[in-house]
Design a protein that fits this description.
This protein has about 375 residues and is of the alpha/beta class. The protein has helices at about 10-50, 55-65, 70-85, 90-105, 115-120, 120-130, 145-155, 175-185, 255-260, 275-285, 320-330; strands at about 135-140, 160-165, 190-195, 210-215, 220, 230, 235-240, 245-250, 295, 335-340, 345-350, 350-355, 360. The protein folds into two domains: about 5-105, no CATH class; about 120-360, Purple Acid Phosphatase, chain A, domain 2. The protein has eleven helices and 13 strands. A seven-stranded mixed beta sheet has the order 4-5-6-3-2-1-13. The radius of gyration is 24 Å and the shape is globular.
């Protein structure tokens, strides 16, 4: 009996077949990459502009699911779109996640992938832990809490669960009856919110309606009518879980002049004052410049995600005094993790993680 492996004619035929396949695959791969290059800006536009269009997103899912086998970029775009759209249309997105897994195996979605943490973890964590309280992080909802509402429903959260919002929750923005009604709706959500100060909202201590309360070893601001809406005080260190967590809110608004021209809300105390900075440094000196975690709105200057900068903004005119100060803090501080928002991106650099509407378990 002659083995195929030792048959010269068979080897030659296989080699010829491989060459033929390569000659077909290479141009197809080039076409796929070209197609993905057209899809990518559409995905970016939907996410950055918060577009909610079921039909358009469904078509994007259809396109990307077919490209994934030949394009890593398509795979990342698919996961990024899932991550954003899951809490807007969970039924549609869940259907495509099922198709994805059937086509690319059950292990195709890496549970540690930065694009899918909000899809595959929060509900599963709640179920795995027997519905014991968990802590979740997110950022920059700007008054749009549809994602939060969907997450609460899907994960069956309770007021014992904690949602840390890393700035720009948009809760203290409008003022008056409109804001009071908005807060009333938020208090009906089955979750407790712990909000860091951003740059698109007023500081709670400036409103006259908040009282101070001790919470997890630090001071928070709270209104009696809305007991599940807690606002952090800059410079406080809170014990959350088994970790000591420093809070530093605030940032500069690159849309400052646009908001002023349109008579929209802008407040001169959006960045931490010199008094706040001194208080932060004094508190850190008390703990020998050691904390487990930092929660901030903006990031130290060295970690700025420059790819997210708006090309119509003159970066030389942006006030980066807060980022420069955070740079000095980060250089001196002994810490394990740093979480921030502000830049409308989800990514990790060294020990720092940016969040943007993603839902990420804090543990």
């Amino acid at each position: 009996m002659i083995h195929q492996d030792n048959n010269p004619d068979c080897k030659e035929a296989i080699s010829s077949l491989v060459e033929d396949l390569c000659s077909i695959i290479e141009p197809v791969h080039a076409l796929v990459e070209e197609a993905v290059s057209y899809v990518e800006p559409v995905v970016d536009m939907i996410i950055l502009r918060h577009i909610v269009d079921h039909n358009q997103v469904e078509k994007l899912y259809d396109d990307l699911i077919n490209y994934i086998g030949m394009s890593e970029r398509a795979d990342k775009l698919f996961k990024r779109l899932c991550n954003y759209y899951f809490f807007i249309d969970p039924v549609l997105t869940s259907d495509y996640i099922t198709i994805y897994r059937e086509m690319y195996s059950d292990d195709a979605i890496d549970p540690d992938d930065e694009y899918v943490s909000s899809i595959d973890t929060i509900k599963e964590v709640k179920e795995f832990m027997g519905n014991t309280p968990i802590t979740i992080m997110t950022a920059d909802h700007h008054g749009d809490f549809r994602h939060v509402e969907s997450m609460c429903v899907l994960a069956e959260t309770t007021k014992d669960d904690l949602l840390i919002i890393l700035g720009d929750a948009g809760i203290n923005y409008y003022g008056g009856k409109k804001e009071k009604q908005f807060k009333k709706l938020l208090t009906e959500l089955p979750i407790t919110m712990f909000c860091i100060h951003g740059n698109h909202e007023r500081r709670p201590e400036s409103l006259g309606t908040y009282t101070k309360q001790e919470w997890h070893g630090g001071t928070v601001y709270i209104e009696p009518d809305f007991p599940n809406l807690l606002f952090a005080k800059d410079g406080e260190i809170y014990s959350i879980g088994d970790k000591n967590c420093l809070v530093i809110g605030g940032a500069y608004s690159v849309d400052k002049w646009y908001r002023l021209e349109n008579k929209w809300g802008w407040w001169p105390d959006e960045q931490p004052s010199n008094d706040i900075k001194r208080a932060v440094e004094s508190r850190l000196a008390e703990v020998n410049w050691r904390v487990d975690v930092v929660f901030s709105h903006t990031a130290p200057l060295k970690y700025e995600p420059r790819e997210m900068f708006l090309n119509f903004i003159d970066d030389s005119k942006v006030d980066k005094s807060t980022e420069i100060w955070l740079d000095a803090i980060e250089d001196k501080l002994d810490y394990d993790k740093w979480y921030c928002g502000h830049y409308n991106t989800d990514k990790t650099i060294d020990k720092l993680r940016f969040l943007y509407r993603d839902f990420f378990e804090f543990k």
